[in-house]
Amino acid sequence: MKQKPRSTHRSTLFLDKVQMCERAIELLLLPEDEPCLLLDIGCGSGLSGSVLEDQGHTWVGVDISSAMLNVAKKREVEGDLILNDVGQGVPFRAGSFDGAVSISALQWLCNADKTWHNPVKRLYQFFSSLFASLSRTARAVFQFYPENSDQIELVTTQATKAGFSGGIVVDYPNSTKAKKFFLVLMTGGAMPLPRALGSSKDNSSVSYTSKRERIKKTRGKPLKKSREWILEKKERRQRQGKEVRDNSKYTGRKRSGRF
Questions:
Q1: What pTM did the predictor assign?
Q2: How confident is the model at residue 42 (pLDDT cuts 50, 70, 90)?
Q3: Residue 222's closest CA among 242, 208, 236, 240?
Q4: What H or E segment, with its residue span, contains residue 152?
């Protein structure tokens, strides 16, 4: 069987991580058109941080790997970088962040990589310090790869003990390749979880790549109140699980002002 070239494999991983980070930002339910200060947990080389930058946010990244942080420095990312084992807690003042994202990192806290590691204690220490560092209206969204249902139970139990409400959103649950797990945590009390992508005909047609390409081409936002601006806003709200009206030929059309 012929293997894919390494460069192709890397570009696929790049696009996959970009898409997962864009989805995590949508699940944060951030205020419309307002820059926020976000925490990137397990930031690695700063790829997800670059997505946060593209969407106009400021970010701080933490990671346990000095080698990966050095790569981020060489890439000259705009976020502040901190070397830290989040299993010992996150070292920030109370209410510092408007939200937090994490891509493909949470599952590592479920393992006992060292003899003195206790996953239950490390997860609780992490979630309790994270809860304190977030504002009281903020959310934290983790894309992760649980090995089994026991790991899902482990992380949700410790997050709840730390004060969070929320749950798991599984995008494309019937697909082997596209299926993604997101732990959505809320600080401001229990609210309905956003609807998972792929759970209805409308949601399964969403393309993150096309949105990413639009951002790269325009390097700005559509003219406010234009048809494109309205459609993007409705699309974003739909992904967040909110109810929106169906599009029609009148969507975004200017009114004459006459009765």
A1: 0.73
A2: very high
A3: 236
A4: helix 149-161
